[in-house]
Specification:
Pfam family, one: DUF4365
InterPro entries: DUF4365
Distance between the termini: 58 Å
Number of domains: 1
CATH topology: Trna Endonuclease, Chain: A, domain 1
Radius of gyration: 19 Å
Strand order of the largest sheet: 1-2-3-5-8
Protein name: DUF4365 domain-containing protein
Largest sheet: 5 strands, mixed
Shape: globular
Length: about 200
Amino acid sequence: MALAQPESGGPSRAEGYGGGLLPQQIAPLRGTLATTACMETLQVGYLHAVAAAAGCSLSQPFPDNGIDWHVSHGAPGHLVDDEVTIKVQLKCTYQIPPHPSGPTFAFTLDNAHLVKLARTPVSVHKILVVMVVPRSQDDWLRAGHDRLDLRHCCYWTNLAGHAVTGRHRTTVRIPTTRIFDDRALCEIMTRVGAGGRP
């Protein structure tokens, strides 16, 4: 029985992503789901990957009351409990370029969302995670034999105590140094587990 060999692709974008990734083929026929809905799904995939690598469990509140996910981290070193939890609000945008220049970038929230994220004191801390994606879905991810590249990046911040300044929406600053990955999540959970803030 003969097995079909994979066709070699034309010009590849693999160089831009590093070695080991498969060449880019002709653009696939994508579904008609709204881009914003696809962005929401992509950011959830990012969160799941980070939580898995950090050894955390995820739960989704039902019904949703303005917070997307609860992330829990169990470790014997925690002082306040054997398992600590934070609440995560996800947002996604393609209006910010990759590798934002400067120490922060601007992101605008509805005031109702900000009030929920800024409340203090709280029994369960909250963080905002903002994912910056390419405008085109063709550039969102690439698979290779040794990895899956998901673009571009998520950044996190704790908005506890942040003031509402706009009439309906308020612009907040997201630190570019706070990349949301498994190490950052473990560090957040370590601080919360010691009785501190994220």
